[in-house]
């Protein structure tokens, strides 16, 4: 099933994200997480691409295949292009097709320091176009409620997003945010610009202070005062911070669902406990 079809059911779509293991960990750790996540019955699970966009020792397809072919849950494989040539993408598309993976989240990916980017794909929109021309895949794209860090303005960012949709992105998944007002404002501006595809809100529950500092540095998300106070109050109590972070994420999600969000995409950090606590709290709203 193509992800876009899930949005025809007139309800909030719930999805999770997992990531392949680091070089120091075995893929079995992710298998264990997926084994638990499947019982929560999400509409789909996405699998991120290898660090730095490397196709070498990349478990993305293997994990996406497990989700789809063993557990019967729709999967979406991330695919980045910043360090890929067309031949690399061709190889990945072939592998995905052979494993019955129908959905791809097409991303440019983060540039790696001291590594010269490839030139076959300059933007994610180029990758979207190439995928649509070379296979029958459902293609999703990323969007940025607080504006992409490299965009000159939000207006430019939204125009770039519109181009990506025109190239074939059928649904959108947002970067994480901690203030829903940024998402609502962004979505309204996108609609004014003529972007009408389903937009899924990306929510990352807090697990520790270092994680948040790292993610905020990478994606530039703003931290509301309420959120900052929560971190400060519980940063020395790890278990309490996890519970507080889950509660904060639940509040965000309840508000989003109440305001008619198309979908909620939970960045699980491969932690089934967090996903379960959130899902149990919101399942009656979906």
The general outline is globular
Q: Order of strands across the widest beta sheet?
A: 1-2-3-4-5-6-7-8
Class of secondary structure makeup: alpha/beta
Number of continuous helical runs: 11
Main pleated sheet: 8 strands, parallel, barrel
**Separation of termini?**
20 Å
Quick check: average pLDDT?
A: 92
Low-confidence stretches: 52-57
Q: What is the succession of H and E elements?
A: HEHEHEHEHEHEHEHHHEH
Helix residue percentage: 40-55%
Oligomeric state of shown chains:
single chain
Q: Could you give the count of β-strands?
A: 8
Task: Report the sheet-strand fraction.
Answer: 5-15%
Radius of gyration: 18 Å
Question: What would a concise description of this structure say?
Answer:
The chain is an alpha/beta fold and 286 residues long.
Helix-strand layout with pairing:
Blueprint: H1 3-6, E1 13-18, H2 28-37, E2 44-47, H3 60-70, E3 74-80, H4 86-98, E4 103-107, H5 124-133, E5 138-143, H6 154-167, E6 171-174, H7 180-192, E7 199-203, H8 209-219, H9 225-234, H10 238-258, E8 263-267, H11 272-282
Parallel strand pairs: 1-2, 1-8, 2-3, 3-4, 4-5, 5-6, 6-7, 7-8
Describe the structure.
With 286 residues, the chain is an alpha/beta fold. It is built from 11 helices and 8 strands. It has helices at 3-6, 28-37, 60-70, 86-98, 124-133, 154-167, 180-192, 209-219, 225-234, 238-258, 272-282; strands spanning 13-18, 44-47, 74-80, 103-107, 138-143, 171-174, 199-203, 263-267. Strands 1-2-3-4-5-6-7-8 form an 8-stranded parallel beta barrel, surrounded by 6 helices. Helix 5 packs parallel to helix 6 (154-167) and helix 9 (225-234) runs antiparallel to helix 10. The radius of gyration is 18 Å and the shape is globular. Residues 52-57 have low confidence and may be disordered.
């Amino acid at each position: 099933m193509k992800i876009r079809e899930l949005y025809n059911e007139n309800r909030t779509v719930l999805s999770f994200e997992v990531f392949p293991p680091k070089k120091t960990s075995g893929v079995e750790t992710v298998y264990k997480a997926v084994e638990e996540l499947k019982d929560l019955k999400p509409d789909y699970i996405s699998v991120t691409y290898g660090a730095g966009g490397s196709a070498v020792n990349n478990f993305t397809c293997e994990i996406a295949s497990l989700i789809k072919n063993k557990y019967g849950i729709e999967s979406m494989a991330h695919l980045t292009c910043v360090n890929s040539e067309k031949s690399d993408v061709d190889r990945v598309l072939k592998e995905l097709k052979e494993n019955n993976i129908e959905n791809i989240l097409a991303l440019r990916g983060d540039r790696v320091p001291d590594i010269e980017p490839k030139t076959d794909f300059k933007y994610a929109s180029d990758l979207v176009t190439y995928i649509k021309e070379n296979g029958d895949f459902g293609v999703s794209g990323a969007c940025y409620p607080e504006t992409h860090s490299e965009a000159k303005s939000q207006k430019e960012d939204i125009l770039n997003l519109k181009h990506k949709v025109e190239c074939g992105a059928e649904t959108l998944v947002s970067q994480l945010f901690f203030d829903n007002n940024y998402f609502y404002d962004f979505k309204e501006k996108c609609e004014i610009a003529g972007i009408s595809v389903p937009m899924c809100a990306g929510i990352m529950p807090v697990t520790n202070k270092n994680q948040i500092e790292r993610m905020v540095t990478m994606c530039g998300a703003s931290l509301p005062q309420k959120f900052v106070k929560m971190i400060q109050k519980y940063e020395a109590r790890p278990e309490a911070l996890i519970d507080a972070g889950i509660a904060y994420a639940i509040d965000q999600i309840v508000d989003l669902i109440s305001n008619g969000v198309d979908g909620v995409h939970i960045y699980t950090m491969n932690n089934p406990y967090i996903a379960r606590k959130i899902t149990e709290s919101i399942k009656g709203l979906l």
